[in-house]
Amino acid sequence: MGAGSLIVLIICGIAFAGGGIFLSQVLAKTSTNPQKGEAYECGVPTRGRSWIQFNVGYYLFAILFLIFDVELVFLYPWAVVVKDAGWMAFAEIVVFLFILFLGFLYAHKKGALKWM
Amino acid sequence: MSFLTNYFSTIYTSVRSLLKGMWKTGYYFTHHKEIITQNYPENRDSLNLPERFRGEVVMTHNEENEHRCTGCTACELACPNGTIKIVTKFDITPEGKKKKALDTFVYHLELCTMCNLCVEACPTGAIKMDQAFEHSVYDRRLLTKKLNRPDSKLMEGVE
Amino acid sequence: MTNEEIKAVISEYSPEATFDETGTWLNVMIQATDWLPLAEALRNHSALDFDYLFCLTGVDWKTHLSVVYHLTSKKYGHSLVVKAKLDDRNDPVIETVCGIWRTAEFHEREVYDLLGVRFRNHPDLRRLFLTDDWKGFPLRKDYEDPINMIKL
Amino acid sequence: MLSIAEIANSLQQWLMATFSPGWATLIEFVLVGTLVLSFFAFLGLVLVFMERKVSAYMQLRVGPNRVGFRGTAQTLADTIKLVVKEGLTPDGADKFLFNFAPFLVLITSMLLMAPIAFAKDFQIWDINIGVLYISAVSSISVIGVLMAGWSSNNKYSLLGAMRSGAQIVSYELSAGLAIMSVVILVGSLSLNDIIASQQNGWWIFKGHIPVIISFVIYIIAVTAETNRAPFDLAEAESELTAGFHTEYSGMKFALFFLAEYVNIFIVCAIGATLFLGGWMPLHIGSWEGFNHIMDFIPSSVWFMGKTFFLIFVIMWFRWTFPRLRIDQLLNLEWKYLLPISLFNLLLVTFIALMGWHF
Amino acid sequence: MLEEIGTTEQGDLVINVGPQHPSTHGVLHLVITLNGETIKKVEPHLGYIHRSIEKMCESLTYRQFIYSTSRMDYLSAHMNNHACAMAVEQGLGLEIPARARVIRILMSELTRLASHQLWWGAMAMDVGAITPFFHAFREREMINDIMEETCGARLTMNYMVPGGVMFDLHPNFQVKTKDFVRFFRSKFDEYDELVTNNIIFQERMKNVGRISAEDAVSFGCSGPVARASGVSSDIRKLAPYEGYDQLNFTEALETAGDNYARYLVRMQEMRTSLSIIDQLIDNIPEGDFQAKTKAVLKLPKGEYYSRVETARGDFGVYIVSEGGTTPYRIKFRSPGFSNLSALDHIARGCKIGDLVAIMGSLDLVIPDIDR
User: Pairing with B113, which of A61, C77, D158, E174 sits 20 to 30 Å away (CA)?
Assistant: First the structure.
């Protein structure tokens, strides 16, 4: 099967999830209670909003990820042909990775990999 | 260079410690003899509770439906939680005297902490601790028990 | 340090203190107003060095309240019991010792919660166990609990 | 010998012969859909049961043993329970995203099924960039997780989702690099080519130590990517109750749960395909007799055996190790796994170019 | 105003952990102020299971009140009872038979072992490893069986009475205890392999939740928490009771003051308890197991304070008697209460994940705090 299978799979996914949720809505006993709509916070009413700007230490990692992920995409075509392309390709990728690695070391030195 | 040796020795020791832990859990995964859980309700018959185990207070009765409780309320006083309520009545002795006797021995299992103080306090050894431990019921009123059997009498010679 | 020496030092700081040596430890009875200077002395005096406040509680004596401090010195190993008397039962106030022994913060909140002793300058004097709108102080002798399981 | 591929082929031929091409394709699609759906449900049931049994035996317990024969129907009972449970949506939640997230997560894991070769010549879609496809599609699931966590309007969920975002994207790098070392050796992105290249031995045996390192890194990275302990920070039970799916209940929770397990299956299937030869039987060099005996075992059994072995290893991790802390988790990736896998990649290239691999 | 809506300033998140949370061992409610993942402030809210045991005890007799302390720190119920019985004996001036003393020590050490085993499992579970919990329960079960046979109960033993113990030892006691000690010794290496030496566990524990010796003293910490900071605080050594001074054991001390030090102290204490049991199990003196006491106990007017070393630290009972059959005022100095007061100080600057580990290493038992 070709790319058509993706459509089948997507439909399957929707059917599975939708069917399950529909089935549970049909079968499940429901009752209304204002407390059911509260956000769970160990049984204590939430204080403050959750959707605030807050300090995520992960942000820098996301940026770093972007750099490396792009690099990864470049590597895929290279990986396929490297055996045929020979040593020249190897040398080139060593230089490529070396530059990247320098960048990585720089980030490390700057403390981007340290948790804030 | 020492940085690199350090780096790799860290990796070595960490991986080793992790593998050791996995070895241990792997050992238990393959050795089912080590399983310690019991198949509880099914093994009820073979359950062996030690005779001192305190599950609930019971009153001993002999074959003639006689108990040893004189209704002296020593246990009621000894109980820290108000678990025991003794209702007394007045019996007429053969000599025609009025004598205090037990009418109902009310036992609130839901309040009992199995501290054994009532058994210790009882001067006549009328009550004891039983090994029954499956007390759950759907109605908490069922936990209030009457310990002396219907129509039971005081044993001869117990004062 | 022997009890006699401790007594001598304490008398220096609060001359009105009385002593009782019948128990395991030396007991010192003082007025609540004398407490803070004495506490500072007990903690900071180099020969006393009572650095460990292991128990802080209060007792309701019906006519008055007292706050009892059990102190010991990790360095010298001697112990001392200080009983501060609070005469005004309606509004008992004593200085806090949070700044001297940090464990006092919790213990004082507990005493406030259950006995109603106010600790002046306490950073966060709120009810610890009971709800904020609770009426009365349960460990007072005149406190009547509307629900009493045992009497039920 | 009757194999799954033959059945599939004869079925297709029969369809083609009986119906017009359009109808045949449609029926084929419906058949595949039903097959995938039932496989999906079956996987969920089996993996959950397996997890419970594995954990039980490691914890000196028997595990589920009441419902059905030796407890085998336990997960079915659990599923029924989840179905009849009321699915709640918190008042403060972003309703659309909250309900959409489980769909997204589920569809992602569904899509990942496409290129997997379950048996010899038995594959939904023989895509020539299979490896790239998997890397690409699997990163969608993180969006579902972030969506779920953010839309719940719950602080635990939010923290869990943020953690999971940082974690999944980080570990994707080393997983990708580990996969790439096999790609270099094979010179193709197609899963079928990769399996075919392991005719005379699996890459883990042929590729010397660098491939073994890649394999280890791959297993660690995918454990983290699927949010499994010891990297289950997104759900960190003792810290964030249930992390990003704290607010989900009933069937919506079940979908997350199912997707998690199917994802484990998929990453293990990929791992088995890349490093352990997929459905390829165990062949040792020129031992003709031995190789011949191995060929008698159906290819699907080989594939499932390897995959489930890897799944077992991942479960083994979970029931042995404590959880890492978020900064340690990222440290592990950025200070250890990433540099090592970059270096390892060069080593593999070197070996490939020198032709040292068998 | 900002305080009111829970967001003190930009980027601060206020989260409730507990009363119903998988990480708190009991119903502890912590209000945590977070900056990202970093903890800025931890505020414990207590009272969810406050039963006012101190007030209840004021209406119970000296025989009865002992057992209400089992419900405080239920993991070292026996040792709590011990402290109470000792306070009453102190008031009555009772001399305890030698056999009863040895039985008390043996039972206390067994309880300490059981408590530490549970803590070990729970500690591992707090940092995310679930399997050790069950392994810990395997050994704990053996102790519980020993307890059940002699005391008649598994958790809240109610075995102490003023003047001794309630029953004599069960005939099987010695054999079973020896079996247990042998078995537990053989399994102790497993504890190390599964948890102690595990690199992830060490990373989670080392240099986390540090408290200095000075702060530990100032916060009134006791037990393993204080000892991990190098503060000698073992009541068994400082104020020996029931003949602990005649035993040969050393106080476990560490100096780092972090989670890992607390962990090591408790592991060391388990070994100490085993050695104490070894010393006593073959030398149980013959004789009475209970001193003769009156049916109704009356403590002379005065104040009595007794302290024992429970699994969590220094447990004290302060009885004020007015001469009646019930205490006038009673105060239980529970180790967990003081240890909890240090939590905010310890946890500041740590991550959420660390908070759970810190609580585990403090070994908080909430009913002990919420009396």
Answer: E174
Asked whether at least 3 C-beta pairs link D and C within 8 Å, the reply is no
- CATH top class, domain E51-339+350-369: mainly alpha
**Every domain of chain E and the residues it spans:** 51-339+350-369
pLDDT at E8 over 50: no
Closest to E76 measured CA to CA, from E219, E230, E223, E194: E223
Domain that holds residue C97: 3-120
Judging contact as 3 or more Cβ pairs under 8 Å, the answer for D and A is yes
Q: What is the CATH number of the domain that holds B130?
A: 3.30.70.3270
Mutating which of A6, A10, A16, A33 best tests the D interface, going by the most D Cβ atoms within 10 A? A16
List alpha helices for D140-249, DSSP H: 140-151, 155-186, 191-196, 203-206, 208-225, 237-240
CA distance B143 to chain C (A): 16
Chains touching D (3+ CB pairs < 8 Å): A, B, E
Q: Which residue of B has its CA nearest to E136?
A: B36
**CB C116 within 8 Å of CB C141:** no
Domain of residue C100, CATH code: 3.30.460.80
Q: How far is CA D110 from CA A9, D27, D121, D255, in A?
A: 6, 20, 20, 12
Is residue B25, in this structure, part of any structural domain at all?
A: yes
From the list E158, E190, E295, the residue facing B115 with the nearest CB is: E158
The C-alpha torsion from D321 through D327 and D330 to D334, rounded to 10°, is -120
Contacts D–E by Cβ distance under 8 A: 82
Query: Residue C39, Cα to own-chain centre: how many angstroms?
Result: 10
d(CA D221, CA D141): 15
Is residue C152 less than 8 Å (CB to CB) from chain B? Answer: yes
Report the residue of D61, D235, D325 to disrupt the E interface, i.e. the one with the largest count of E CBs within 10 Å: D325
Contacting E with CB below 8 Å, chain B residues are 13-14, 17-18, 20-21, 23-25, 36, 49-50, 52-54, 78-80, 113-117, 120-121, 129
Which tens digit of pLDDT belongs to each residue from B37-74? 888 888 888 888 888 888 888 888 888 888 888 878 88
E241-294 per-position pLDDT tens digit? 888 888 888 888 888 888 889 899 998 888 888 898 888 888 888 888 888 888
E strand or H helix at E279: helix E259-281
Q: Considering only alpha carbons, which residue of chain E is nearest residue A56?
A: E36
Q: How far is A64 from chain E (nearest CA, A)?
A: 19
CB-CB contact of E298 with E94 (8 Å): no
Considering the domain boundaries, does residue B159 fall inside one? no
Chains with ≥3 CB–CB distances under 8 Å to B:
C, D, E
Give the integer Cα–Cα distance in Å for D48 and D257: 9
Amino acid at B3: F
- C130 found inside a domain: no
Bridge-based pairing state of the strands B153-154 and B98-108: unpaired
* Residue B145 lies inside a defined structural domain of this protein: yes
How many domains are contained in chain B?
2
Report ipTM for this prediction: 0.85
Domain boundaries, position B111:
46-154
Classify strands C93-95 and C118-120 as parallel, antiparallel or unpaired.
parallel
* Distances C33 to C45, C93, C104, D74, D174 between C-alpha atoms, Å: 20, 9, 18, 69, 68
Q: How far apart are CA D185 and CA D349, in angstroms?
A: 7
Please compute the mean of the pLDDT values over residues D51-72 and round it to a whole number.
Answer: 85
Residues of E in contact with B53 (CB under 8 A): 148, 152-153
The pLDDT, as a whole number, for residue A55 is 63
Bridge partners, residue E38, by sequence: E35, E351
Does residue C139 fall inside a structural domain? no
Q: Could you tell me which of E321, D3, C130, D57 has the C-alpha nearest to residue B25? A: D57
Q: Which two structure tokens, joined as six digits, stand for E222? A: 């006791």
**Residues B94 and B137 occupy one common structural domain:** yes
Contact: chain C with chain A (3+ CB pairs below 8 Å)? no
